[in-house]
Structures are given as C-alpha cells and as structure tokens.
Amino acid sequence: METVFYIAKTLLSILIVVVPLFLIVAYVTYSERKIIGFMQSRMGPMRVGPSGLLQPIADVLKLVSKEIIIPTNANKGIFLTAPMLMLVPSLMVWSVIPLSEYFIISNINAGLLFILALTSLSVYGVILAGWASNSKYAFLGSMRSAAQIIAYEIAMGFALVGVLMLSGSLNLQNIIYAQSGNILSWFWLPLFPLFLIYFIAGVAETNRAPFDVSEGESEIVAGFHVEYSGMAFAMFFLAEYMNLILISILCSIMFFGGWLSPFQGTPIDSYLAFIPGFFWLALKTLIFIFIFLWLRATLPRYRYDQIMRLGWKVFLPITFFWLTIIGIMIYLEYLPL
Amino acid sequence: MNIELITFFIFSFLLIFTCLKVVTSSNPVLSAVNLVFSFFLSAVLWLLLGAEFLSIILILVYVGAVMVLFLFVVMMLDINIAKKSAAYINYLPLGIGIFIAFNAIIIFFFINTFENIDYNAVKNIEIISKSNTENLGYLLFTKYLVEFEIAGLILLLGIISAIVLTYKKNPKNKYQNPTKQISVTKKDRLKVITGLKE
C-alpha cells in the first residue's frame, strides 16, 4: 500500500512539473515571436485569438495533425529514436530542479552532476538525427553541432566548478541556501566571469542564435532536423525550448539565488515574506529567457571557426584563471566556504 | 519482489541485449549506438548499487564525451556494411567456447565470494559522510593525491603528444589571426580617391 501511495505521489509531482512546462514552452514560442516582432517593428502573430494569444495552440494542432515523412533511405529505427533521445534527457533534468523552498521532485545529493550528465546526453539526438536522415544538409548540421556542444560543455562544466567551490555541495537546494544573505551574497558577484561564460555556453549548448550553426537556415536549410516533419519535428522543437528554459532556470539557481528573495537582508523583507519563493525563481528565469530571445533578435550568426575559437581559446582559459583566483580567495578567507 | 530487484533484472537484461547487439550488428554506427546504450544501462546498475558518483561520471564522461567522438569518427567513415562471412561461422564454435569458459569462471568466483551475503560494500563506506561523492573526493585529495596527480599528468601528456603528432605546419594553410584582425583601423582599409574627374 505504501509503495502504491509513494508511486502515486511521485507521478503527481511529475505531472505538476511537466504539464505546466509544456504550456510554458508553447507560450515561450509565442513570446519569442512577439518580442522579436516588436524589436523589428512588426506586430508578430495577430490572427488567432486576441493579439494572437491562441497561436501556439494552433501551431501544436498543426504539428500533431501533420504526417511524419520518413525518407526512403533513412535508417528508420534511429530516425524515429533520435527525437526521443533529444526530448527525454531534457525532461529528466527537471526532476532535480528545486522550484521552491519545499517543492523538488527528488532532492538528490549529486544534483549538479546529474544535471551535467543529462544535459550532455542531448547531443545524441542531434547527431543521430543528422546521420539517420541520410541527407547531406542534416549530416553537416549534426557534425557542426557535435563539435560545438562538446567544446562548450567543457567550459560549462568548469564554470559550475566555481559554484561548487563556493557552496561546498552538489545538492541544488544546498547551493541555494549557501547564497542566502542579501543580493550581494549571491554567487554572481564573486563568480561574475564564470556566470557570463556559463550563460553564453548555455546559449551555444542549446544551439540558439548566435550559435545556431547546426540549424543555419540560410546555409544548410534547417540542419539536423531538415527531414523531420509533424510530431517528430515537434519533439525537437519542444526539446530546444525546454533546454532554453532549463539553462535560464539553472543560471538563476546557480548564480542568482534561485527562489531566494532579492530583498533578503533589507528592512522591507518582512513585508514581502508572503510572496512564495517560486515567484522569485520564475521572475529571474523569465529575465534570462528574455535575454535569450533578445540575443536572437540582435546578433548575427557566428562563423563556425569563430565558435570553436571562442570555446577553446577564450572561455576555457578564463575559467581556469578564475577558478585559481577563487581558490586563492577561499584560502586567504576573503570568501566563506 | 521489491522494486530494486525488478529494476535490476530489467536493466541487466537490456544490458546483455545491447552488448550482444554491439558485437553482432553489421552496421558500425548501430554498434556504436548500442555501446552508448550499454554504458547508460550499466550506469543505472551502478546507481542501484549506491555508487552514484561513479555512475553519473560514467554517463558524463563515457556517454557524454567519449562516445560522441567515437560516433563522430564512425559516421565520417564510408560505411561498408559487413556481410556475415564464412569466417564468422568458422569462428563461432571457438567464440562460444571462450564465452562459456569465461562466464563459468566469473560465476564460480561470484558464487563463492558473495553467496548469501546481504552486504553492500559501497553503501557501508563511511569516511567523512554517508555520501559516496564526498568520500571519494576526500580520499582522492588526501590519501591518493599523488596517484591522482600522476593520472592527471599522464592525461595531459596524452593530449600534448596527440597534438604534436598530428599538427603539421604547412605554409599553404590559411588561417586568420584575430588579434591582427581587430587591430585594423580605418586607414588600412579605406582609401579616399580624389581628383578622378580631370
């Protein structure tokens, strides 16, 4: 009986996270089109519903009802597995994300490692999709993306080592507790270069503009998912936006205090105690999502060799350098451990 | 039957299945993909044992990095799908013989050592805390520091020697010098031409 109750409780908490997540993904796509529209003096989607509010639902219906076309010479098994391999890890990561002080599906000790391991899996979806499609454009896109993701994963991992050094824990909830105090005791201040590197590497990791060479619609049509249609394409699409939200939420957890209130340690904090921690986390995450969309509207695409150079020759040395400085500062007790 | 046992049997069955597929599939890319799956499944088995650090590192390093490069190389090859040749059949009895002998030794060893022992060696280590990760980190940076550093140096040596072996400076190679590029001024690129209409 207890097992049944436990399984039911776990399933319920998974549903509480996943169902709103899909809705949020749908409306992130809407806000992306709106925000980029406004930045380029357009209106964005306006036709479906009041100011286009029902547009994402129409898009979902369109994608679900479309046929999935499988190319004749494609490797059918892998062709159909690849989108799942992309989507499942990005869903699994949400199990260790602390959404508020009390709500986390599984509060495991090695949470940070778990996240790093699972985010490194999403590259398989891209590579296998490109290979299985048996198309030159798709293959080019997947080759580009594989090299890029490996390059930036290393810088990303090293940026998180800084967080690890300051918090002394791999548990995400403890990482947030280690930042409590006031807005200046959040990790963005001592780890500022690492925060920038983490965010930029995150943009590269999710294959978003200005690092979207694996899609590169003006050079290789749509890169690795050029042969996909209907639901299979929708899964890539979902995974991309889920990763975008994930990087944003991780940024706010690792460097901006997660669900901690920004007014902590100030006199007005006691008046704002009624606001739940989830609100602050959502606010910080939305700011990062906005920056993602802003980057896409603003920057031109990087050239491939520039991406490689940035990852290996700029980011990696900076992380090494800053980790040494953090180590020295902890040793001299300028920073608390 | 508890959940742990059911999970163990499901994942170990899948592990054996994918391992067989690695060897038997005729397409090298499929072999590599199955190898990825088998790494992942064995990581799950380690997790069941309570060795969370090793299992996550297995996924992070082997699945997330090593196998990606592996796949990368295999995909670049012009794949000749190997046909099951006569040699395959000829060596089959020998292979089966070795397989049985090898398994017999392993099973013999495990039954002798671990039969009727309900003791998880991994979960019962407690040096500074219950957490596997903390214990491992503590030991690596205190007791086994020298070995750890030597391993790091060997890896560094491997990286450098691989680069030295493959890097050839060819005068025909064209590459950009970004420091030179960003120090370009207007004077270097623009020339104002006057007095053409004469």
Structure, described:
The complex is a heterodimer of chains A (about 325) and B (about 200). Chain A has 2 domains: about 1-65; about 75-330, no CATH class. Chain A is about 65% helix and about 0% strand. Chain A is mostly helical and about 325 residues long. The radius of gyration of chain A is 21 Å and the shape is globular. In chain A, about 45% of the residues are buried. Chain A starts with a helix and ends in a 6-residue tail after the last helix. By secondary structure, chain B is mainly α. Chain B has 2 domains: about 1-125, Four Helix Bundle (Hemerythrin (Met), subunit A) (Up-down Bundle); about 125-170. Chain B is built from 8 helices and no strands. In chain B, helix 1 packs antiparallel against helix 2 and helix 2 packs antiparallel against helix 3. Chain B is extended and about 105 Å long. The chains are: A mainly alpha (about 325), B mainly alpha (about 200). The interface of A and B includes residues 3, 108, 123, 124 and 147 of A.
Please render the helix and strand layout as text.
The complex is a heterodimer of chains A (337) and B (198).
Chain A: H1 2-39, H2 55-65, H3 76-92, H4 111-119, H5 122-132, H6 136-167, H7 172-178, H8 192-205, H9 230-254, H10 277-298, H11 304-331
Chain B: H1 3-24, H2 28-49, H3 52-76, H4 86-114, H5 132-141, H6 145-166, H7 178-182, H8 186-189
Helix pairs in contact in B: 1-2, 2-3
Outline of the structure:
The complex is a heterodimer of chains A (337) and B (198). With 337 residues, chain A is mainly α.
Question: Overall 3D geometry of chain B?
Answer: extended
Which percent band covers the strand fraction of chain B?
A: under 5%
Determine the fraction of residues in helical runs of chain A and give it as a percent range. 55-70%
Mean pLDDT of chain A, to the nearest integer, reads: 84
CATH architecture of the largest domain in chain B: Up-down Bundle
Topology of chain B as a string of helices (H) and strands (E): HHHHHHHH
The number of distinct structural domains of chain B comes to 2
C-alpha Rg of chain B, in Å?
A: 27 Å
Name of the CATH homologous superfamily of the largest domain in chain B = NADH-ubiquinone/plastoquinone oxidoreductase chain 6, subunit NuoJ
Main β sheet profile of chain A: none
Briefly, what CATH class of the largest domain in chain B? Mainly Alpha
Q: Whole-number average pLDDT of chain B?
A: 83
Low-confidence stretches of chain A: none
Rg for CA atoms of chain A: 21 Å
Quickly count the domains of chain A: 2
